[in-house]
Every structure is written in structure tokens, then in C-alpha cells.
Amino acid sequence: MLFVQIVNGLMEGVMLFMVASGLTLIFGVSRIVNFAHGSFFMLGAFLTYQFAPHILPGTMLGFVLTVIMAGMLTAFVGACFEVIVLRRIYHAEELLQLIVTVGMVMIMRDVVRVVWGMNDLATAIPDAMSGAVNVDSYWFPIYNLGVMGIGLLVVVVLWAVVRFTRVGVLLRAATDDRGMVALLGINQAYIFTGVFASGSLLAGIAGGLAAPLGSINFLLDTTVITGAFLVVVIGGLGSLSGAFAAALAIGVLKAVGVLYFPRAAMVTAFVIMAIVLIVRSFKARG
Amino acid sequence: MKYRMYVATVAIGLSLVTGASFAADPILIGYVGDLSGACGPYNDGNLKATRIAVDEINASGGLLGRKVELKVRDSKTNPEEATKQARESIVVDKADILTGPCTSSVLLADAAVAQEHKKLLWNSIGTTHRANIDFGNRYVYQSVANSLMEGRALAEYAATQKSWKRIATIGLDYEWPRQTIEMFKQHLKELRPDVQFVNSVWPKLGESNFGSYIPVLLNDKPDVVFGVMFGSASSNFIRQGKTYGMFERTKVFTYASTYLLKALGNDIPEGVYGWTRSPFYGIKSPAMDSFVAKFKEAHKDFPDDESIAGYDSMMQMAGAIKLAKSLDPAKLVDALAAQEYVGLRGKVSVRKLDINAYAPTFIGVTKKTPAYSFPILTDLVRIDGERVMPSEVEVARMRALAK
To answer: Any chain B CB within 8 A of the CB of A219?
Structure first.
């Protein structure tokens, strides 16, 4: 049973990472605490719901194309938000940036409510991935395993891009020292827009992948954002590998917690965060 | 500038003309409901039906010679917000009477404000027995089965299922599920000492991923999983349950309101045991038929349980106001208890002791039928409030304990 819960926890952890990766990426480079990240996740889910019946419904290929399209459109909305609004407030104080992204949360929520209504919507799992793998008497849903696979793929791709490509070098440089990158004659504006769009793309894809697993409704934004922030804070703001480790740890600890301390399972993640923050504050003091 | 003057004059004139039949100030109903947040869809159906009822009341001459008006405020499925909005409804809007809370925690918050300002609050969605029974709040009318009655009614049903011997429970970790599961357990242990409760899990309110809960629930090989949750948590639990083969491996007994059945459609398997409070399809009466037709015409949809309860309780309250010839809470409570009210749910009388309706609980099994595009609960068993209401002695004991 412990093993089963660890696998279940890993599945949830990878999903958490998918959401948190975009958030930490954006923070790392632009230092924007993007509360609207959950809203982009929600948008991805709704767009998947919208496109799914029209693109080879029920098939694997159709679903993959649907999610990619939903992700790209979300990325486009994210890029527009960055170009039109965020770009003007990078130098403003954090509070102002916070208000702007929270404002975006409210705008997106109302737009979603107007377009799709308040009721719970749903989209089906592609036929090839419904069903489960049985090990002993335990069932592992194929879809969840598939999502875990895609999530791990995203991890590898992200890592490879950051580690080996020129874009990655610039990203790391921008995370470390923005001024230096500017001095080297690189147009920061492109980097920021690109990073925000990529972060939104990740959120959109995560939303699309999560869509068949549950209800799609206008509350998804806040449902998701708390967990994502937990991961980002525990993992170290802006650190992708940290976020990955934190997401897996939270997922597994929660699942194992349900098994042993059913009433306390929900607080485990917050306990970890408290410990991490306390330890960090000691380290910072030296 | 002149043009505006004309418009203003016309507007004032019109309001005088149209308002002429209602000489006095309107009776203001403060509808403080959870229009946004997790409860949004439930309050939506409730408010729509309440509006239909108010229109009917006004069409037949209003109440006490006064027009009835609804003033709506959003408590956002949040107890702090509810306290603020309920206060403003009374103090700023000058509401005479309140309704609208959805979650049990918002209900408790609203109830405290109603008591503080001595205004009657009636509830037709949320269920907790703590306000009107434990705390003895004389300003809250509970028009649907409270969590104690519901928990007991469900236990009565479960006791008749001989094959249910091992029961696992899952409840969202807040007021209503905690109370309902506790009452269910207590009563079922009395009725069927052979029943054994195995694992119980408590996801937080707002949980969307049940992947780590379902395997734990199934691990003890329960005969039935008893679930107390609502809205998207319910539908997520059912959808994800399917991927874990939950419905092949155990029976499931959960809250299955009309809203949930409509939202899930064919995603909810047949053979799920479900309970609900006022299903339009489960109560046959001319009054129900005409209400369903009216609702469908206005909103192109079947009414939810919360709609039926909203309309029913509004009409019941209107009757009580007529009988009491007053808006004074104590007099209204007397009138509620004295009145012989027959509404959409049939005859539902009110007990003065705890201002609680003898409201029914409906339990059945999901099945697809040709009549509706979504599965409904069939083989419905109706358990009336009379069977499960706590006795006067019990109420006294609960109140003593709460002090």
C-alpha cells in the first residue's frame, strides 16, 4: 500500500510541477509574482474543453493536438498580457505588480464566467487512455501514468533547453543578473516576453492535461495557484530543479499522509514550507 | 440639460404610476447568498426559483398589502464575507428578513448576525444542526433536513442494505460532512451493530485531486464507500473513481443532487447509491409539474433541488407572514409552526422547539431513463423528517452540551 501511495503521490507531484514550473520560470527571470498563473491554467483547461469535440474526438492524436493548441493560445494570451501590461511595471514596486496580476485573475475569471458559465464542465479522457493497469489488486489509471510521462518529458526538455542552448544561457544569465545581460546588448524585452509566453504555455498545457481528470470550472484558478506557490516557495523562488524536487515531495508526502494521518494530510505541505522557510532564514543569517 | 429633466420627470412619474397599487414600503428580503465561489451554481438555481416565487407573490397582491422585493448580496462562499454582507443587508439595505446561505459555515455566520439584529433568517440550502438546535438560535428557520436528520435518514437506509457490512467514509473536512458522517455512524451503529467502519479520509474543502484518497479508501475492501461532498469535489471524485475502477470494486453511496446529476450526465455510472433533498423528478404532484414547466420556460433547464427548496420555503414564509400579519421573528416562528403548509415537497410542517421543518431526504440508485438526458435516482425511498428528528429530550441534551 505504501508503494501504491508513493506512485499516486508521484503522479500528483509531476502534475504540480507542470503548473509550478511556469510560475518559477517567470519569477526567476522577471521577478514578477504572477498570481494570474492559475488563471492561465484554467484557460488551458477551458480551451481544451472547447476544442476537444472538434479535433479527432476520442483519439490520442486528437487529444494531443487539442492540448497543444490550448497551450499555444494560452501562451499567446500570456504574451499579450506581458506586452500590453506587465512590461510597463517591471520597475514598479512589488505591491503594484501584485495588484496588476491579481487584477488579471479577476478579469480572466469574469471572462471565463461570461463565456462558459458557472456550471462544472467536463471533457473525456481519450479512449486509448481510459482504463487502468492492475498490479496485484491495485489499479493505476493509464491516463494518470501518461500525464506523469508527459510531465517527465517536459522536465527533460526544460532542463536540456536551460542547460545546453543559447536561449538557456541567456535565461540563466537573466536570472542571475539582468543588468549584465542588458549590457551585453541583448534585448531584454524579447527575453521577458518569451519567458512569460513559455510560462503561460506550460500553464495552458498543464490545464489541458488536467482537464479530463475533473471538473472544469471558474474556480480552477485559485484551486491551482496555492499549490503552485507552495511548490515554488519550498523549491526556492526561481529554481526549476528545486520546484521539481518540492513538487514530488509534496505529492508523495500528501499521498502517504492520507494513508497514515488522514486528518492531517492537508497540512503536510504547509509544514514542509514552514520548515524550509525557517531553515533558510537561519542560513541567510549565516 | 432640459432633456435630462424630462427623463427624470418621466421616471419619477412612472415609478409613481406603477407603484400606485402598493402604497406602503416594500417588504425587503435580504438574499445574502454564495453567488460566487464553490457554492455559486447551487445558489444560482436557488435564486432563480426564489425570484419566480417573489413574482408570483407580487402578482397576487404582495404580502400585508406591501410589495415584496429581493435585494441580493454575494457572500462568496466565505463566512467572513457572509458576516459583513448580512450586516450590510440589515443595516444598509434595511432588510426585514434574510435568506440565501449555502455552505453550512456561511449559514452559521449569517445565523449569528440574524440573532444579533433580531431578524429572521431562513435557510433552504445549507445543512447544519448547530445553529437552530445546539445553539438554540431563535432567529433561524431550517427548511431542509439538517445534518443530524440527514445523517440519520441515510443510516436508516443503509441499515436496510444487508450486504453493507464494511463501510469506508470520505468527507470534505468542514462542518457539514463532519456532522453528517458523525450522525450517520452513530445511528447506524445503533441500528446495525454488525456494521464495521473501516478507513475514513478527509480531503480539504476545494480538493480536486482524489488520486491519493481513492486507493486508501479501497484498500480495506469496503462493501460501500460513503461520501459526503458536493459540487466539483463530487464530480471529480466520481470521474477519478472511474479511472481507479472504484465502481467495479465497491458500491458508492454519496450526495447526488440534481445539479450534480445534470453536471455529470452520463459520466456518473448506473448503480450509484445517492441521496438528495428535493428532486423534481421524484415528487409527483400538479404543483410540482406546474413549477417545473414554469422554471423550464424561464431558464431552459430543469430545476435543481436547491430551486425546489428555494421556491417552497419562500412560499411557506409568505404564508407565515400572512398568518402572523407581522415580520416580528417570534410571531413568524409561531405562524410557521401553526401553518398547514402543502408545497412542492408535499406537506412539510415546522417544529417550534428548534424551528426546523420535518423535511424529507430522498435516497435512490442512479439509472438512465428515456425521459431525461442525465441519469436520475430511481427506486426512491423518501424518509420524512418525522422519523429522524431528534426528540425533545435529545435537543435539550444537545443544548446543554453546547453551553
So the answer is: yes
